[in-house]
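Supplementary material to the annual report.
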Amino acid sequence: MFRRVTVGLLARTTEARPFSTDLQAAQTVDSTFVEAWKKVGPNLDPPKTPLSFMRPRLPTPSAIPSKLSVNFVIPYAYEVSGKEVDMVTIPASTGQMGVLPGHVSTITELKPGVQSVHEGNEVTKYFVSSGFAFIHANSIADIVVAEAAPLDQIDSSLVQKGLAEFTQKLSSASTDLEKAEAQIGVDVHSSLNAALTG
Amino acid sequence: MASNAAVPFWRSAGMTYITYSNLCANLVRQCLKEPYKTEALSREKVHFSLSKFVDGNPQKPVIRSDSPTE
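Predicted assembly:
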């Protein structure tokens, strides 16, 4: 009896465990739920579960794909939805980061800065205020931000005025919160400035 | 165990991430060129009525709005 136990244990530990980065394609139908339903009510159609309403996640391809699929969303619009591009550069909080197809899975917080989408020869640049970028193993990048504007919609005189105003507020700020707000103002306006001139 | 990462300056000043993000977004909106600026600012206007409950009874509702009321 005990020999069977050790055989069982050994078999389980030597099995290769899948890495969390090698994602399989997601299922669209919850098979365990459907089977349990059929046992209880064989004549009724099983109701749909949330899983069947979602678009399935694509499997991680074994070879590096040639294009990156980007979903760039703002609260009121899908700026870029599922577009196949060559590269995206995002303003991560650790610095400007370029994302190519086959990039390692990453989640980064974005700081106010310029994001550019490169496809062939055309480059579209946006200034993003702050948000997050999720890059998945199957070369899908999701970029979610609170506010984004193409660079030509930004008024440089307002930026200069804002920068001067916040630098002045920073020097005259008294409480920690005021200092933080003024510092944020200075950061945002100086990145706007850099985006317009750079 | 020490803290995992350097605390951002706004967090140590008592601001939450949502406040920070909304502040940044507002600053960017205010720097836009004219037709886009009014569109963006009007898009973000809110109008709601808030009433606190004391002992299971709603108190007088307070209206919070960005649009001028008559």
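The CA atoms of residues 51 and 61 of chain B lie 4 Å apart.
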